[in-house]
Design a protein that fits this description.
454 residues; alpha/beta; eleven-stranded mixed β-sheet; two-stranded antiparallel ribbon; 16 helices
């Protein structure tokens, strides 16, 4: 039976088994790889976080298509994910039999060169209560939405190899966002009536036991905040462990917390991360999507555009078609953030726009809810909106979907045409010395990284 034909049965009730650097060599599929390939994975996995599970290994990866299978690249370390100088440094440490402390010191030295918190997350987004208390388990970048990082959700069922939140998963505690107290979240929402949306994120909030997750939800619901309209949950659980909503021993309680939220009159937006249509192919994910939707939650889908994984318009079009068929709403195509292995996964913005456009024109209007390609950069979410010629000059058209200043939103601006640029920092203004937002960004948001025009 192929993945496309698979149908979920309630008798299919596995227990999660995780694979990390400690035990991934035990997998029969990995043992078929050469010693050099296994060593390369170990080198990369000592710097960038690595974790897979039995569902990913057994149902999503095509082991006859290694190393090119997109789900394999998505979850297992690849040599090129580290720059050569970093790879060689860690490889030499491992070959010399260094102890765990030295390995970790070298790993942290490399990690700090990988821009662990892009777009001013640490400098600009950490909010403060009126009494001066800094809330390091929250971020507040856009007026209407704040992010909440429960301390119990600082891991995932498996790790995406491109993840921009990778500092959450490595031994760099000073780089983590985490908060235990739902009461401080309520206090902040009370002090900021402009906030209508709370986004539970991590890690993955759906890694939490339902009893813990429900306490956070109850704290919000019982506060009865007039400004709170939407609770969002950013999660990869549907793709990496759909049994969380099917047969895990707290599946019904988790779904009950969703239903409690919608019954209260709040909108529950389930922000599902799907990077390839293969993740939508199993019977279990289809059944899980159905159960989540039955609670009144709405599932919106998002993914970055990733070299080696989904760098193909047909892959995106098929993914959006399947999502619409399953009742999900395509939401965002992101550009890989300027952190971690951006050099490996990044796609030039011009090419990203062409992939988006060629996928977009293949789907019906119901799939054209998706926006992108979008960069979550220091000033805001910047979308590549087209390639045009103005006064005989070819330029890239950009606009803000979200901005630190809401007045920037939907204002078009233009960058020099550059086929190699992969991020906002790589672009130069087409007709002016500076982009229109730069002076305000520098003056109002001290600590923001300046756009590099060198």
């Amino acid at each position: 039976m192929t993945l496309q034909e698979s149908v979920w049965s309630e008798t299919e009730s596995p227990r999660i088994k995780s694979y990390t650097l400690i035990n991934f060599h035990d997998l029969p599929q990995i043992q078929k790889l050469s010693e050099q390939q296994q060593f390369e994975m170990e080198v990369v996995g000592n710097v960038l976080p690595f974790k897979a599970n039995n569902y990913v290994v057994e149902q999503l990866i095509d082991w006859n298509n290694i190393p090119n299978d997109p789900m394999f690249v998505l979850t297992f370390p690849q040599k090129e994910m580290l720059q050569q100088k970093h790879f060689e440094k860690m490889a030499n440490v491992l070959k010399n039999g260094a102890d765990k402390k030295e390995i970790n010191n070298i790993a942290n030295e490399i990690r700090l060169q990988l821009n662990p918190h892009p777009a001013g997350q640490l400098e600009l987004n950490v909010p403060t209560l009126k009494d001066g208390t800094k809330l390091y388990g929250m971020q507040h970048k856009y007026k209407e939405t704040c992010l909440f990082f429960p301390s119990q959700s600082q891991t995932c069922h498996a790790y995406c190899s491109f993840c921009f939140r990778w500092p959450q998963f490595v031994a760099m505690d000073e780089m983590k966002f985490a908060m235990k107290e739902g009461e401080q979240l309520v206090q902040y929402l009370t002090e900021h009536p402009e906030i209508s949306d709370v986004l539970f994120t991590g890690g993955d909030p759906m890694i939490m036991k339902a009893s813990i997750f429900e306490k956070y939800i109850d704290t919000l619901l019982e506060a009865d905040l007039p400004n709170l309209k939407t609770i969002r949950i950013g999660t990869k659980a549907l793709a990496f462990w759909p049994y969380k909503f099917l047969t895990d021993n707290d599946a019904d309680q988790t779904l009950g917390a969703f239903e409690k939220t919608t019954n209260k009159g709040l909108h529950l937006a389930f922000m599902a991360h799907f990077n390839h249509h293969k993740e939508l192919s199993t019977g279990s994910v289809k059944a899980a999507i159905k159960r989540v939707r039955e609670t009144g939650a709405q599932i919106r889908t998002q993914s970055p555009l990733l070299a080696h994984i989904n760098e193909d318009a047909d892959v995106w079009a098929e993914m959006w078609r399947q999502q619409v068929k399953l009742g999900c709403i395509p939401y965002y195509m992101f550009v890989v953030r300027d952190t971690g292995a951006q050099h490996y996964f990044g796609v030039p913005l011009v090419k990203a726009y062409e992939i988006f456009r060629n996928a977009y024109k293949q789907v019906s209007g119901l799939g054209r809810t998706v926006r992108g390609p979008s960069m979550s950069a220091t000033p805001g979410k910047v979308m590549v909106d087209g390639i045009v010629t103005i006064n005989n000059k070819k330029v890239i058209v950009l606009k803000f979907l979200q901005g630190r200043n809401p007045e920037w939103v939907s204002t078009p601006f233009f960058a020099e045409y550059d086929e190699n640029a992969i991020w906002l920092d790589d672009l130069k203004p087409a007709f002016e010395e500076k982009f229109f937002f730069e002076d305000e960004l520098s003056q109002k948001y001290s600590g923001a990284r300046k756009l590099d025009k060198s």
